[in-house]
Specification:
Distance between the termini: 11 Å
Strand order of the largest sheet: 2-1-3-4-5
Structural class: alpha/beta
Strand content: 15-25%
CATH architecture: 3-Layer(aba) Sandwich
Radius of gyration: 16 Å
Number of strands: 7
CATH superfamily: Flavodoxin domain
Shape: globular
Bound molecules: flavin mononucleotide
Helix content: 40-55%
CATH class: Alpha Beta
Largest sheet: 5 strands, parallel
Order of helices and strands: EHEHHEHEHEHEEH
Length: 178
């Protein structure tokens, strides 16, 4: 049966390379129905305990959570801002973390990152792994792609053969677990 894959770049840039990378990864999965989210469709006030008390959880956070619950597997590619998550992503995560259960539920996940630089967003990917592995044991693969502009083409995906092999290994773990 066709698997439902939810994918997004954890960035609000309209040219997000992480959205491109997450989309590429999702489209590699055989027999999948892919939904790509854009964080700009989930822009909410900056989380604060006072706003939560005053107005509760915004509908957009509930809608994001519903997308997570409906998926068989989730692919996130994290953009790195100053060594960590983008504010756009972190805000959505903070609101969702105030809802019942863990944010990612028990969903299978593939965590990715990329950047124009040589570390490929390794810092933010490490932050995601160290935090989310506590709440979700079903993170089955992770990969960061360095030098995005040199190693990725819109038409062909990852162009470097060694990096492509490493990526495919992680993707296979995720696909195998679906
Ligand atoms: C405010 C800001 C901070 C950044 N900090 C980092 C960083 O710490 N490490 C890094 O590799 N790239 C950093 N970059 C460059 C991003 O990796 C680059 O903008 C990338 O395109 C972000 O991914 P996106 O296109 O998916 O948004 C930063 C960019 C911005 C605008």
């Amino acid at each position: 049966m066709s698997k439902k894959i939810l994918a997004f770049g954890a960035s609000s840039s309209i040219h997000s390379i992480n959205k491109k990378f997450a989309t590429f990864a999702a489209n590699q999965i055989t027999d999948a129905t892919v939904t790509i989210l854009d964080l700009n469709d989930f822009e909410m006030p900056i989380y604060s305990v006072d706003r939560e008390v005053a107005g509760g959880i915004p509908d957009l956070a509930k809608q994001f959570k519903a997308q997570i619950q409906a998926a068989d597997g989730i692919i996130v590619s994290f953009a790195e801002h100053n060594g960590s998550f983008t504010a756009a992503y972190k805000n959505i995560y903070d609101w969702m973390s105030r809802m019942e259960g863990s944010v990612w539920e028990e969903q299978l996940m593939l965590l990715l990152s990329t950047s124009p630089g040589g570390r490929g967003g390794k810092g933010v990917l490490a932050a995601a792994l160290s935090t989310y592995q506590w709440s979700n044991k079903n993170i089955v693969g992770h990969f960061s792609l360095p030098f995005f502009n040199q190693n990725f083409s819109e038409q062909g995906g990852i162009t470097d053969t060694t990096l492509l092999a490493g990526f495919k290994e992680q993707l296979a773990l995720f696909e195998g677990a679906l």
